[in-house]
Amino acid sequence: MPSPTRASNPRAVVAPRVELAGADLLRTIAVLAVVYSHISFYLIDDLGSGWWLIDGVYAVFVEGLNLNQHLSFVGVAIFMTLTGAVITRSAMRHHPGRFLLDRVGRLLPAFWVAIAAAIVLVRLGINGMFSGQPGISNTEAALSFVLGGFFLRPEVAVLGVTWTLVVQVFFYLYCVVMRPVLRSRPILVPLVGAGVCALMLLYNLYIPQPYTVPMLSKVAATLPAVFLGQLMYLGWARLVDWRWLIVGVLIQIEVVRLATEIHVYWAGDRYLWTMTVVTALVFVLGRYSGRPTRWSVIRWTATRSYAIYLVHTLILYRVYEHAVGPLGRTGAVIAFLIVTAAVSETIYRCVEVPAARWLAARTRRIGREPRESLPAGSSDAPSESPPHLRPVDTGDRA
Question: How far is CA 326 from CA 47, 199, 299, 322, 332, in A?
Answer without folding.
Answer: 17, 53, 33, 8, 8
